[in-house]
């Protein structure tokens, strides 16, 4: 019990570090949740356009103008305002000039062209799409030997056709995007919290005076290491549970689903890996002053390289190749896979089982290295 009491005393002295990393997780978790908010509704946008009709009141031209009025905001410019100024100051996004004799040339298959001026922005591209859509349909029916009225009727009937869109999943992708963002950032807090606290405690037990007293006591080194590992395991479990409880408070309903359980299992699996990393580093480092630098290199470095701060799809290919050598990459990949999973099936679960097994392999490798290093040091001593 004396080892556990000492462990708790040292932990109590460093409690503010745990609080700091937890506060960072909460702050950036809320920030990421805000930035990943999406909507499942669609509102059609209407670009601002101006039309200069030099073809008069012809039926084909008027039908084109009427369609554009339905799909766009057609604005009349003041005589004192030039087209270039209106486009520059974004009063309009798209300016169309319908040339004289447009209908006549159209019906005679002379392919009349419209004069276009635009801002080149998103709204201008949208106006371009609307116009091209109409012209393609009109050109198609113009190839048939139909009267002018029949062509107009066919064009308008085709333009009125709509496609029904049905959602094939009931999963709230917005809520799970927030869960993914939260647990991805937890990669940093889990690594930093475990490495800093466990290494600080192990460094305290490796103090020269403490080590000498331990060796002359009846306490065996194997027993001390076993108790330290058990106490550190309890700390890691409590820290992981704390972060999971925070996720329930912030994410609520999404964490009460089967997908939430998958996030939790992945978090515990990675926390065990973080524990093994911390023990490996603790077996190598005695100076407390070096621990801050190690935390920054490992926790921050792996978080940047593996997609905790920047989404994986935005990272260069050479960075991803390096990330494959780190357990954080597989932890974050699993979170991403859970967020995109449409349903729970064996095929979908198999995509996260392999990365989970790789994380366990990393944990086993770090444990083996720690045991080997400990035995080597005991031989030297």
Describe the structure.
This protein has 381 residues and is mainly alpha-helical. The protein is 69% helix and 4% strand. The protein contains 15 helices and four strands. The protein has helices at residues 2-13, 15-35, 59-71, 83-88, 102-107, 122-142, 148-159, 173-205, 208-216, 221-251, 258-284, 291-306, 317-323, 327-340, 346-380, and strands at 48-53, 73-74, 94-98, 115-118. The chain has a four-stranded mixed beta sheet with strand order 2-1-3-4, covered by helices on one side. Strand 1 (48-53), helix 3 (59-71) and strand 2 (73-74) form a beta-alpha-beta unit. Helix 14 (327-340) runs antiparallel to helix 15. The protein is elongated.
Keywords:
single chain; 381 residues; mainly alpha; four-stranded mixed β-sheet; 15 helices; 4 strands; 4% strand; elongated
Helix proportion: 55-70%
Unreliable segments of 5+ consecutive residues: none
Q: Sheet bearing the most strands, described?
A: 4 strands, mixed
**What series of H and E elements makes up the topology?**
HHEHEHEHEHHHHHHHHHH
The whole-angstrom Rg is 33 Å
């Amino acid at each position: 019990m004396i080892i556990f009491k000492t462990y708790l005393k040292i932990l109590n002295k460093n409690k503010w570090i745990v609080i700091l990393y937890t506060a960072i997780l909460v702050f950036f978790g809320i920030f990421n949740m805000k930035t990943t908010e999406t909507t499942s509704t669609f509102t059609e946008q209407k670009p601002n356009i101006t039309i200069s009709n030099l073809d008069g009141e012809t039926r084909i031209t008027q039908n084109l103008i009427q369609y554009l009025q339905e799909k766009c905001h057609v604005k009349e410019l003041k005589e004192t305002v030039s087209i270039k100024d209106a486009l520059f100051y974004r009063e309009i996004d798209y300016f169309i000039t319908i040339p004289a004799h447009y209908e006549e040339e159209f019906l005679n298959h002379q392919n009349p062209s419209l004069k276009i001026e635009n801002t080149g922005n998103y709204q201008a591209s949208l106006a371009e799409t609307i116009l091209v859509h109409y012209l393609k349909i009109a050109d198609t029916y113009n190839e048939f030997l139909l009267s002018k009225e029949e062509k107009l009727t066919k064009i308008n009937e085709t333009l009125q056709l709509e496609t029904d869109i049905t959602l094939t999943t009931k999963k709230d992708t917005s809520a799970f995007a927030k869960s993914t963002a939260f647990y991805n950032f937890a990669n940093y807090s889990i690594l930093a919290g475990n490495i800093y606290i466990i290494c600080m405690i192990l460094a305290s037990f490796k103090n020269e005076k403490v080590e000498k007293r331990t060796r002359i006591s009846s306490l065996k080194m194997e027993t001390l290491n076993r108790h330290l590992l058990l106490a550190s395991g309890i700390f890691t479990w409590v820290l992981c549970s704390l972060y999971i409880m925070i996720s329930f408070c912030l994410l609520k309903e999404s964490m009460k689903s089967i997908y939430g359980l998958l996030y939790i299992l992945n978090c515990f699996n990675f926390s065990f890996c973080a524990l093994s990393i911390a023990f490996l580093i603790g077996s190598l480092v005695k100076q407390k002053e070096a621990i801050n630098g190690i935390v920054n290199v490992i926790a921050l470095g792996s978080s940047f390289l593996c997609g905790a701060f920047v989404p994986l799809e935005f990272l260069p290919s050479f960075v991803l190749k390096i990330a494959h050598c780190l357990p954080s990459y597989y932890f974050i990949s699993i979170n991403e896979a859970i967020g995109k999973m449409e349903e729970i099936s064996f095929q979908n679960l198999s995509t996260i089982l392999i990365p989970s097994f790789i994380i366990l392999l990393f944990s086993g490798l770090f444990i083996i290295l720690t045991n080997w290093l400990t035995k080597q040091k005991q031989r030297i001593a």
